[in-house]
Amino acid sequence: MTDLQARLAAEITARRDDLISLTQDLIRIPTLNPPGENYREICDYLDRRLLRSGFHTQLVRAVGSPGDSDRYPRWNIVARRAGARAGECVHFNSHIDVVDVGRGWTTDPFGGELKDGKVYGRGACDMKGGLAASVVAAEAFLAVVPDWGGAIEISGTADEESGGFGGVAYLAEQGFYAKVDHVIIPEPLNVDRICLGHRGVWWAEIETHGEIAHGSMPFLGDCAVRHMGAVLHEMEETLFPALALKRTDMPVVPEGAKQSTLNINSLHGGQDEILKPGTGLPSPVVPDSARMVIDRRFLIEEDIDKVQAEVRGVLERVKARRPDFDYSMREMHRVLPTMTDRGAPVVTTVTEAIRATLGRDPDYVVSPGTYDQKHIDRIGKLKNCVAYGPGILDLAHKPDEYVGVDDMVASAQVMALSLLSLLGPPRNP
User: Fold this and answer.
1) Catalytic residue numbers, as ranges
2) Could you tell me which residue ranges the Peptidase M20 dimerisation domain spans (predicted)?
3) Model pTM above 0.85
4) Residue 429 pLDDT > 50, yes or no?
5) What does the alpha-carbon distance between residue 390 and residue 189 come to, in Å, rounded to a whole number?
6) Is there a contact between 227 and 314 (Cβ–Cβ < 8 Å)?
7) Looking at domain 200-335, does it have CATH number 1.10.3720.10?
8) pLDDT tens-digit series, residues 178-206
9) Which of 113, 167, 312, 388 could form a disulfide with 158 if both were Cys (CB 3.0 to 4.6 A apart)?
């Protein structure tokens, strides 16, 4: 390291306790999505913190976005601090929402407990630890580095866990990324990895149709659930084996995600569930509708039209064999795969910072699922974007989720050294 790099790294080490307490404070604001709770509270918290650090802040409500309502408004914060001279803009983006807690916790999901060098809680790994690391990295950079140019931006955005439409997508549509040059998203892909992008996703709802009749005389009706069973059987026999043969050259992790995958996200047939404490039994009827939601993840080598055609081919083969079989299919969501080039400026910069901090080369990976890079790429028209942050990917959405303090310190050092390389004073010849 140069002397300035070493002083910057040491400054972040000295802020270790502040990094821990900031992460704990963020975890203790339960920003559950769905439905989208406490978004304004966490944005107000970040607003107070970043104003003290000299940032100009904006709170932006994504009015009209999916899920936005007076009860659950979709709030975002965007903070910007300009340097003393002209230069490029580096933007750190983190989502503020977390998924449902689920069962199996041995710690308080919103307690932010510090134990054995780890901070526990829902969102610790995914991704409030990364958000805290980016804030501390920027603040340390401002304290140590003189004569820097350009701008630093930090955003906390809504709804990444449900597609990001009330967060990054909305901001991109409003032009917030028009003057940004580099984006780092501190998602938990492991501290020695740079994530270049993600696979594609296509969600669809398939409905099989039948005819209602009395349950004691099913021969007078047509059971939509049985039709759906035939669809599932055809998928098992033909679609799943075909997907297992599709492989990618993308460096997707984990290994199983290097192939195309399909998940049956939900399945429902017949009458709606009886809510507890209900009375009596469901009425005896033949179900005239069955619905299935599928989550198809596809590779950069695949064409989206062929992805859809494969599923429709399953339905058409079933239709050819089953009398009175009828179906409908509705697209719910689509995102094309994206992958930043390894030679992009943000990639080479973060690579050098990892080498300086950790003493080794990073691994370059692609995420099995999507994150907000999709909107920065597709809507914001900015390819120079990576995901890099603390945390172990496998812990995301799990009980007893945690983030390691050492990883947060190291990733904050990497982010700060990246700022130094992109915005700092020119090095002496």
Assistant:
1) 97, 160
2) 197-320
3) yes
4) no
5) 7
6) no
7) no
8) 999 999 999 998 999 999 999 999 999 99
9) 167
